Amino acid sequence: MAPSRGPQPLARTLHATLENHKGGVNVARYSKGTAKYVLTGGQDRTVRLWNANAGTEIKTFAAHGYEVLSITVSQDNAKFASSGGDRSVFLWDVATGTTTRRLSGHMGKIYVVEFNQDATVVASGSFDSTVRLWDLRAQARLPIQILDEAHDAVQTLHVGPTYILCGSVDGHVRTYDLRMGELRSDFLGHPVASVVPTEDSQTYLVATLDNHIRLMDSSTGKMLNDFTGHVNESYRTRACFGYAEASVISGDENGQIWAWDLLDAKPLQPNPPPKVHQKLITWTEHHPTDAGEMITASADGTVKIWRHPENSAH
Amino acid sequence: MTTRLKRKLGELGVDTSSRKANENFCLIGTPLPPLEKSKDTGEFVPLWKQEVRDEKGRRRLHGAFTGGFSAGYFNTVGSKEGWTPATFTSSRNDRAKKAAMRPEDFMDEEDIQDLKDNRTIVDTTEEMDFMGGTQAELQGKSVDDSEKDPITRALETSLLPAPKDSVGAKMLKKMGWRLGQGIGPRISLKQRKLQDTQAYDALTGTRYSGTTLDLPEDDEEANKHTYAPRDTPILVVKRKDNFHGLGYVPGRSLQDSLGNTAAGVSKGPKLAGGFGLGALNDADEDDLDVYDHDHRSSRERVAYDHINGDDDDTVVIGGRSSKRNVPAPRSSSSVQHFRDGHPVLTGFILSDHPVAEDKWFPLPDVPAGWKPDPKRVWSKNKENIQTPAPVPHAQPHAQWKKSQISADQRGSILGEAPLQAAQRSVFDYMSEKDKERIKRITSGLKGASETGSSIPGPPPPPVSLAKLEPHIAQAALRGFQPFKSDPVKQARYNAYLLSQANTDGSSPPLKRLPTQAADEFQKELEDYAKAASLFKPMSGAMAGRFTSAAVIEAGPKIIEGLHTPSEEEIAEKEAQKKKEEEDRISPKAHAAKMGMYGPLTRETKPWQPAKLLCKRFGVKEPNPEPEVSTEPMAGPSSSAASASFTHPEFDQPVATAAGKDDTAPSQQIDKPRDLANIGLGEDETQGQDTLTYERPSMDIFKAIFASDSEDSDDETPDNDDEEDVAAPAKPKETGFISATTILDDTPIDMSTFKPTFIPREGKNKKSKDDDKAKEKKEKKDKKKKEKKAVLVSFEVDEDGADTLEVKQPKDRPKKKRKEKIAQDGQDHGMWATKPPDEFANTTPEILAPAVPPDQDLASSQATGPKGRKRAIDFM
Q: What is the predicted ipTM?
């Protein structure tokens, strides 16, 4: 392994396919910590817990009445939250498989839900163009705060240690900085599909529905890099960083997994990438620690776990 | 009273204690009223104690601040017993009995009294009808007699109240006056007859033709008596409410009015009908009774007038005047015949007056050769005018004004003697010397400025140029051209302005025209000055505020017929729409479109996160409310402590301060403030960082870590675990670093992370103490964890001291968690489940990738600047 020689090649060897979902899969997320497990949520109104290594389903969490659009896992892996078409955030206890709380208040389907770092607050972004911040410590029914600056549906959220990053269909990425007490809104001009900040919070990756993924500077709002080549015009497709944030990975609407070098914004080989999913790829997430593993969720109902050949051997 | 006097009085046998002896005759001041109430109502009460009470003893005046008037019971509608609303009683059965409500039913006694008073006044005024008594009587009778049958009349008279005489009538009656008589001493029959003959109709001025005493003159019996004088008709001057000419009497011909016709024929035409004629339609020949006509008044249209004049205008006191509106049939029993033998229609009589004919005078004979010369006639009677100069009369005023004849000229025309002082000028009052001097000056001037003196007499004063401010002149030059219609004048105006604008004399002053008089020139210049100040454009400062309209709106262009837009039009419209859309998108959107992300696309505005949110995120509240300042010391320390819970990396010094004893600040918040040590003394941690800030030696580190590793020998380090924990810990080190720190990009030296170790040491001790006091079991669990974590770090530690860098951030979250547990024990249940372990049990173990730890570290270090891209890399 030569980490200094640019980004690692993408893990493109299929390790396992998780196919139990009936209908498209909207979200697939690694568990926290060692990230051995994968939680997926799909159109079939279930959240499924998988063993990523074995490719087997461990548990099905079925309480949603509508499709599941977003999942977030708490830092201790003891609970997770999911949201979807039924306009409330469901809080789950992983061990018992039941919902512990249902936070209702949104007026539309909730596209995204995100815990803060110690899972004391859950943020939810909805079609009603608001972001609601729910307190999980207290039993209060009302949200702590409602961020209603967005003019259109909030599609993506990221809750950092001291800031909340949310991307909306109105083409804005809004950074609510709690420490500074200010709201920085960057206009991108196109509906924002996903926002993923780097670990140092200095930059963030924005996928917009104009076939562009942009790396933006958080402090100035300038565009640092622009990644193109893929097709992403009408669906929410999550783009993420590759291992050690050296590359950018995104699925596209043709079922291809694209990867770019972060620095020179050139697509990594193979270019164009092979089509690995039947339908659009809705979610791409790289393993948080493992350099050679990532998952993709697709509208064709499958979640695929990709590994490097040497990793998949064991 | 002195003792001596007392003794003396005692000797006299007077009881000194008796009232009489003590009686005081000396009064000083107004005596206060007695304290107890006396029955004496006439007792003197000072003004401020006087009360006004009504007949029922209620106090009427309360003073302005206590309610003013009183009404009811304490100004309520009720009584002392309270107020009960009237209960509903059905009036269905006794509806007939129920009297109609009168206003008096709703009045109290005062109102009724007021009403009574008013009524009496009204009654007296009604009775005081001086003229009305008789007049009303007259009118009533006049109507009654003609139209009502006797029974009705009798009933009416019995029902109606008896007519009351006015006071004057009463007095006259007392004096023997009767109705229908005149006022005055009684007269003989002869005199009365004379009065009757002399009587005139008051209204028309004609001879009175009414009732007279129809007694024969020679009646002896009648001669014996005296008679009341004839009733004088009162002339009631009617208010003029029509548009007839003055003196025109309706229903009368001109001759009638003049009184030169007999009373008999002044009746006017008789109408065959008597109704059906309006004011505007002439009486037709059919309607007019042509046979009973005065020929002279044949063309009169009096049908309406006559009806109009029906009003009984004459008032005869006491007597009943003959009713003219009643068609009194002329009882002519003998049938009259016209001259041609035709019988006169019944009800008509022949006029015995001949028909008057128009007088025509023959024209005078005009002598041959006569020419009309009106002037001769006009001037015949005007002997005072000698000169036949009617010119000024014929002149219209405007022309006369233009001719500008001076007063002297007028005087000479009128032949007045000229006044001596008229021609005197200023020069007449000057001495000879002065005159000469002026002459010299003017002669000198004549050469230079050719203000030619074509006018004889005293030279006109030099034309004083109407001065204009240069800036006004300049502005006027640029502004409106007032004399556009007259180019010559405009040119002169411009020249004048130029001369005024350039004060340095570069442009010559305006010259007088050769044909122009001096005063005319002067006037012209004044006009120009006025025009310039009037038409100068707005001054610069003002003009900047307005913009003149660039587009003259002429309204929409209207195309006739059905509108069918052509393709060009549609295309044009679309292009316009597109352009508008482009215009509409903000510069922000435009920048985004161009890919110019940055300051253009960024908007920053203040946002206040909720207090609770800040608490949950462990962030000090930005822009805190002013109320925070009530605890000036506790605030920062607590926030610093909270910051250290989650993100100790943020502010190293703060974390150090709080980290010394990080449980202390949280307790401190709850403590009530001690008055004894308000201020800096309140903060127990203050100054601690400065006092105890010293970097522990490496031995301490080693001692800590070595002992930890030794304690945890029973647990064999799991390779997989180590890998898992070590790797995710890495991102933690970059929690939130401000951009400036990034830009520095200085390698992390020992001093920056060092303070985080001090709290750890302190924390360990502190938490141990606390936990010991509380729960030991929980502590054990924690310790296990701690050991585990430290064990990992120890593994890394073996590689060398510099690897502490990696270990340090990994430590942070652990410590944070422990702190939390120490603070609130509720959370520990969450930890008891240990989910990752649970997960691990269900899954087969995976071998960690065979990467030697040192290499991993090296790679992580290498990727630090290389692998992970930062914003700085792109700059």
A: 0.85
